[in-house]
């Protein structure tokens, strides 16, 4: 199965400006992500950015770069522009790999592409992992997902879903976590769908939750969710994350 990877990368970041270019174990973070994408077996890897500093560094380590517009609200919007400009075939599978995931396992990059290939009724495929702490369940930075019995997403939220009417609101024990899933923010799309997505304005749910995938559900499209075959460590958002990730990279 053939697939491509596009890595959206912005220089601006409220909590960590210049994040893609921060050095981790001697390499810019975006280079670690790029190398993980290459190792996944992708037919091609593109870094999509609107910043000349990122372009210069990325081309310096041999990456293909696509310069995109500045106004994109999400990584999916940026990748949709790449798909339109590169004129990918409608059925070509494109994986959205976030530029702040330097520890992402290569296996799950390929898995998300295979998930979409195996579900022709889906416009998007993505991954999830079991929640393992009460703190994660109630953390708005950890996105939760609820799916139907076929694995198609019903909803994504920063809130704890489903809400356990009888147990939540009291002291919540770890045993209450059975059946709760954390969304892993990696997506696979078909290029034809991305061209449609680019024409849709953000919907209210997307704006309220700040979750781009809700735009697809709003328009009646299906998202298939599979449990990740390998653990995906948290990405980089803070100075503390930089230290944590660098320590792990130095022992790999």
Structure in words:
It is built from nine helices and eleven strands. Helix 3 packs across helix 6 (191-197). It starts with a strand and ends with a helix. The chain is α/β, with parallel strands linked by helices and 252 residues long.
List keywords for this structure.
single chain; 252 residues; alpha/beta; nine-stranded mixed beta sheet; two-stranded antiparallel sheet; 9 helices; 31% helix; globular
Q: What shape does the CA trace take? A: globular
How many helices? The count is: 9
Q: Can you give the mean pLDDT?
A: 89
* Strand percentage: 15-25%
Question: How many strands appear in the DSSP assignment?
Answer: 11
Percent helix = 25-40%
Q: Could you give the order of the helices and strands?
A: EEEHEHEHEHEHEEEHHHEH
Structural class: alpha/beta
Distance between the termini: 29 Å
Largest sheet: 9 strands, mixed
Cα-based radius of gyration, to the nearest Å = 18 Å
**Uncertain segments:** none
């Amino acid at each position: 199965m053939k697939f491509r990877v596009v890595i959206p990368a912005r220089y601006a970041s409220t909590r960590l400006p210049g994040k893609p270019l921060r050095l981790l174990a001697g390499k810019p973070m975006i280079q670690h992500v790029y190398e993980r994408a290459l190792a996944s077996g992708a037919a091609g890897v593109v870094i999509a950015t609107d910043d000349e500093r990122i372009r210069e560094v990325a081309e310096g380590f041999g990456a293909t770069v696509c310069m995109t517009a500045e106004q994109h609200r999400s990584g999916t919007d940026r990748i949709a522009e790449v798909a339109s400009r590169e004129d990918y075939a409608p059925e070509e599978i494109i994986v959205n790999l976030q530029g702040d995931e330097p520890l992402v396992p290569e296996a799950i990059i390929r898995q998300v592409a295979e998930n979409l290939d195996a579900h022709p009724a889906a416009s998007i495929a993505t991954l999830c992992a079991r929640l393992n702490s009460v703190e994660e369940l109630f953390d708005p930075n950890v996105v939760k997902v609820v799916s139907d019995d076929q694995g198609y997403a019903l909803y994504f939220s920063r809130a704890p879903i489903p809400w356990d009417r009888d147990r939540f609101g009291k002291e919540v024990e770890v045993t209450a976590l059975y059946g709760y899933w954390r969304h892993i923010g990696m997506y696979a799309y078909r290029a034809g769908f991305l061209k449609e997505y680019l024409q849709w304005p953000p919907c209210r749910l997307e704006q309220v939750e700040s979750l781009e995938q809700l735009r697809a559900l709003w328009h009646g499209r299906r998202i298939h969710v599979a449990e990740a075959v390998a653990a995906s460590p948290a990405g980089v958002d803070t100075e503390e994350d930089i230290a944590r990730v660098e320590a792990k990279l130095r022992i790999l």
